[in-house]
Amino acid sequence: MSSRSQSVAALGPAPTNLDVERLSGHHLTMLRIRAFEEAAIRGLQDKVVFGAIHPSIGQEAVAAGVCGHLRRDDVLLSTHRGHGHTLAKGADLNAMMRELFGREGGTSNGKGGSMHIADFSVGMLGANGVVSANIVIAAGAAHALKLQGRDAIVCCIFGDGAINRGPFLEGLNWAKVFDLPVLFVCEDNGFAATTRTRTMTAGEGPSARARSLGIPSVEIDGNDVLAVDEAARDLVPAVRGGAGPRFLHAHTYRLTGHTSMDAAAYRPKEEVEARWRLDPIARVEELLRQAGLSEGAIEAQRRAANAELERAYADALAAPLPDNARAFADVQDVGDPRGEAF
Amino acid sequence: MSSRSQSVAALGPAPTNLDVERLSGHHLTMLRIRAFEEAAIRGLQDKVVFGAIHPSIGQEAVAAGVCGHLRRDDVLLSTHRGHGHTLAKGADLNAMMRELFGREGGTSNGKGGSMHIADFSVGMLGANGVVSANIVIAAGAAHALKLQGRDAIVCCIFGDGAINRGPFLEGLNWAKVFDLPVLFVCEDNGFAATTRTRTMTAGEGPSARARSLGIPSVEIDGNDVLAVDEAARDLVPAVRGGAGPRFLHAHTYRLTGHTSMDAAAYRPKEEVEARWRLDPIARVEELLRQAGLSEGAIEAQRRAANAELERAYADALAAPLPDNARAFADVQDVGDPRGEAF
Amino acid sequence: MTVATYIEASRLALAEEMRRDPKVWAVGEDLGRGGVFGQYRGLIDEFGPVRIADAPISEAAIVGAAVGAAMMGTRPVAEMRFSDFALCAIDELVNQAAKARYMFGGQTRVPIVVREPIGMWRSSAAQHSQSLESWYAHIPGLVVVCPSTPADNKGLLKSAIRCDDPVVYMEHKGLWPLEGEVPDDPEHLVPFGVAKTVREGRDLTIVSWSAQVHVCAKAAETLAAAGVEVELIDLRTLWPWDKAAVLASVEKTGRLLVVQEAVSVAGFGAEIAATVAENLHRALKTGVRRLGAPRVPVPYAPSLETSLRVAESQVVEAAQAMMKT
Amino acid sequence: MTVATYIEASRLALAEEMRRDPKVWAVGEDLGRGGVFGQYRGLIDEFGPVRIADAPISEAAIVGAAVGAAMMGTRPVAEMRFSDFALCAIDELVNQAAKARYMFGGQTRVPIVVREPIGMWRSSAAQHSQSLESWYAHIPGLVVVCPSTPADNKGLLKSAIRCDDPVVYMEHKGLWPLEGEVPDDPEHLVPFGVAKTVREGRDLTIVSWSAQVHVCAKAAETLAAAGVEVELIDLRTLWPWDKAAVLASVEKTGRLLVVQEAVSVAGFGAEIAATVAENLHRALKTGVRRLGAPRVPVPYAPSLETSLRVAESQVVEAAQAMMKT
Ligand SMILES: Cc1ncc(C[n+]2csc(CCOP(=O)(O)OP(=O)(O)O)c2C)c(N)n1
Ligand SMILES: Cc1ncc(C[n+]2csc(CCOP(=O)(O)OP(=O)(O)O)c2C)c(N)n1
Ligand SMILES: [Mg+2]
Ligand SMILES: [Mg+2]
After folding, report:
1. How many angstroms separate the CA of residue A168 from the nearest CA in chain B?
2. CA distance C24 to A144
3. For D16-74, what is each residue's pLDDT tens digit?
């Protein structure tokens, strides 16, 4: 983990009666996400991971705080930057790493990779390579839950850039019109790839748009896992209780480039430095210290997360390549996929 | 014209210092639109007009009031229900009728028909068969005007059903982000085909959505041509003056079915009866009377409009069918359109 | 057997499947009032507005929501009104529905039926007349169905609803009023990938689908009178398509003519012609041939629209020319 | 002549055209920082943010706005980033851009260039790897360009920008770093519909386009060593496509092999194979043949991705098999 995340901005007094155990849980989740992203980047450098990796380093608090309130039978849809959400929803970390390595035993046996990471066994219905596409799919998943009379809910996470595509409007309108159990979470890191999102976004942004569609929105500091946890603690039961769709607008920052290959020269060093001082992991650790947790206990969590990832990396590296027959499997039930090709 | 439009709801005192000449102009425009729609419907019954006709009977005040403030070099984009807008923008009525008849000399020599009615010579860039598609095209037309440094503006008219498609969001966001000269006009007749739009629309509707995108909106009674005229009188110069995009939300009612073939059994007779009493033509005539215009003068305008349409109908009927070669013309400059077909 | 129209047959199919399987539901604009062509008329009375659901004018959401609802275990029928409007939902259909099962490594299925009425019909002009079946046949993961008769429209729609993969279901608007015998048995399904030999013949094989099948049938009559025995094959589904039936027929006749309403260039007829040319070069007595629309948008004027349609006379001429060589 | 990469060539072409014609501008996500692949790098310095315009993530608006801006007399180049994302703007491209000139009876033109990088590339998986050129070839009103070399990428992009009709411009992501000689003359254009004979030969004609041309060129070397003289034709543009050149070559060789990266089923290779089979049945010494991807989405794992690519060895084997018959 980057040493820069050691120096953390002053946070003022710690909230009284912190649930230290819960906070430690979030801490561990965030550490596992951070370590996973770092392992993924390393894998790409080592040429054992392929394609593009969109790290969520710096955004871990949103994943931990929101997913911490979801049940296993709740449904999650994510984006191209979906490792953290998927882990936080409870996916098998080893299977996820194998997926990035394109190996047998990956969540999709290597057919999806990072941008299509998914684990349906824990209700994680997939990252998505198309910005905003997950929003209409999420509305439909919630539509099914309502038809089935189930009390599970859908959580749909997307970025601030996604609110400028049509499916944002169509999906939110749909969710409200059919009064569906969806929690929309806009993970606002200020950027859409190399573009400052606000320069391409009219009006006041995500919350204003959600409200114009009759969906109440809560705006929070997404780097403060306590704030995320508290917001989700209110929103998830409300949605589950039949209040209809809700919107959470979480402000955060992408501490890495858009992809692991992006040096992000388009933003000043000072800006990034300042943001590192708001690193959500450093902040949760500060809270834990204030709550009386020992440095040793904190360090132990770090070691545990890093050790788990070392094992996962080694396991993935040792895993077999997918059988070539997999290329022709799971296309569809009818028709010969070889078509006229061979 | 339907006799039902004779009994008109009480309107209260007429505004003082009415511009009677201007109002008579609107009256004539509205009568020409009404007569055009009636002729189109008759043509379909007589099997000399084809496809679907979406009459704007009852919505004429919006077309007259808004287009009355547009210059010839301003640009207009419309919908499947575009006859009225096109006429009000100054298109040649005879050429429009010939287009509906699918004849030589039609605005597109019979290749477009009602749903693609267009007259680029007066800045009417086309009706559109795809709901909401005109909104992004309008944003682009305005983008060009800005690039060219021209002081013309774009007026984009669409229905209340169009606000639930993605291009509504993408087009308004685009217009605001690039600060473009577009006047968006939502012609809210309460229906999207057989569906009451509000049942499928989340939140407060068109104006709220526009405002959430940073675009000011004015909401008016679209059956009151004076109200439309006054709103446009403020909005058009503002947009032309560089104020950026503006939104006009005009409430109106579709007095016919969605298409001329639609009996509209999905709405109670009483509702329609009540709406006929708010017929914008009857209302403008009432205003003209209050302003002292004689019944004869009013009747003369009706006769003039109807006579013009009789002539147009006869002219279209007598016009030649398009040369078959036209089927292969204006496809593109390169490549043989006959391809491998013959 | 009941006599029903093509449109009634689809209504019967949907009603039967909705009775059989509570997981089936339909969503689209105006469905509560029967849908734009009346394909859903009356269904709301039996199944209610939750299972015969109105939708906003949001094609991307209609298909996208169907994808999500299908992943969660329901079986949505998504109505596009005109196939042309499905172009507002192509990401959802092609990038999402078609690929989900594969890219998620078989963790999910997307059992949706996307109904896309196709075809030139009553001067509907360029944006309401397209037949883009070849697009979907090109997309891995999609099933493509083009019924030509009431019986097939019933049996194939039922198969589509029971299919665990996304199906693009393309009814031809011009066929809505066509009457024909329709099996009553709710278990009578028409399988995918099995062509129908409409007419047997030894001289020339004509392969077609959707509305053009009827034009070809008339042409076959005329040709028979002139002594040319046509074997007419209605593919019924384009993916999977019945390659075996087509190859067997052409092996026998030695002549292939493909007739389609769609634009001929890069239309599905090219796939059929190419496949036959690849596999039966020696058996062919003359070059394969395709008839289809020229590469122009569909014009409004009836006189022009008609000029794009493959007419019976063109089929007859093409067949006779092929018999001469 | 300058030596430049495929990606630099496109940058040179756009810069030259923007200098020549102030009506030309480009719009897309991240263009101000050079675009996702760096195709626009540095252009903002010369032309400024108004003509090298950033866009929101709004593909429908990028293409739709380009259509409106083109109707009003400008010449937009609309960047789609990956051709897969153009599926979010298909109504705008197919129902609007392609049909406007025709359905408005020639009252307008839509001179836009929609850049859609295609192809399998570095394990980009199912939603970032498609090659849907056959879709656009099927749509009346669209021009379809698939350059395979730096020189062609410069000359064809310039022709596309000067074209008064909508052009779908498909660069192959795998070719970005390819180096080659590029003409300096700003008036050097490569015309549409004129194929390039990469190599002359008397035994067998191979028709290909885009990245596969290079695979075929290697295969042709191998085959030459084995005594098989291949005539390799690079179509360069799929609409219009150089039917005359292909027919003339096959008339000479009597054998046609079409090689494409795209899914073979209903791919453009079918159009070429069908056209040749229709016109040259007598001249063909053996059946036409196509090689292309199987009908499966593109998987992520490099080992699986590679298995979908048409390899040099497959081309060699297919050619040798054809020579035996
Ligand atoms: C429809 C579509 N357009 C463009 C892209 C390319 N793209 C991938 S991620 C991205 C930026 C997304 O920004 P945001 O939604 O804020 O998510 P973030 O990357 O910041 O997490 C873009 C433009 C895409 N994947 N899909
Ligand atoms: C994308 C798309 N979906 C559906 C349709 C079919 N359709 C034509 S008009 C219409 C209703 C439009 O309602 P609104 O926008 O309010 O306009 P109005 O007809 O009331 O003038 C519909 C659904 C279409 N033309 N385009
Ligand atoms: Mg972002
Ligand atoms: Mg309406």
Report:
1. 8
2. 11
3. 999 999 999 999 999 999 999 999 999 999 999 999 999 999 999 999 999 999 999 99
Do A222 and A254 form a contact (C-beta atoms < 8 A)? no
Neighbours of ion ligand 3 (CB under 5 A): A 159-161, 189, 191
User: How is the beta sheet containing D289-293 ordered, strand by strand?
Assistant: D196-199, D230-234, D204-208, D256-263, D289-293
Q: How far apart are CA B202 and CA A172, in angstroms?
A: 8
Asked if residue C112 lies in contact with residue C166, where contact means CB atoms within 8 angstroms, the answer is: yes
The dihedrals phi and psi of A28, each to the nearest 5 degrees, come to -65, -45
Q: Scanning every residue of chain B, which has its alpha carbon at the shortest distance from the alpha carbon of C294? A: B338
Distance CA D279, CA C49 (A): 55
Nearest by CB: D290 against C266, C274, C288: C274
Q: Is residue B141 packed enough to be buried (19+ CB in 10 Å), middle (13-18) or exposed (0-12)?
A: buried
Q: What share of chain C is helix, strand, coil (3-state, %, to 5)?
A: 40, 20, 40
State how far the Cα of D160 lies from the Cα of D168, in Å rounded to an integer: 9
pLDDT digits (tens, 9 = 90+) for A64-122: 999 999 999 999 999 999 999 999 999 999 999 999 999 999 999 999 999 999 999 99
Q: What is the dihedral of CA A189, A194, A195, A197, to 10 degrees?
A: -10
| Residue A297 Cα distances to A17, A143, A303, angstroms | 19, 44, 10
Q: Where are the alpha helices (DSSP H) in A51-132?
A: 60-67, 83-88, 93-100
Cα distances from C42 to residues C34, C48, C77, C160, in angstroms, run 7, 10, 16, 21
DSSP percent split of chain B into helix, strand, coil, nearest 5 = 50, 10, 40
Residue D162 and residue B314: Cα distance in Å, rounded?
44
Please tell me whether residue B165 adopts helix, strand or coil conformation. coil
Report helix angle B166-177 to D59-71, nearest 10: 70
Measured between beta carbons, the chain C residues lying within 8 angstroms of B116 are 125-127, 300
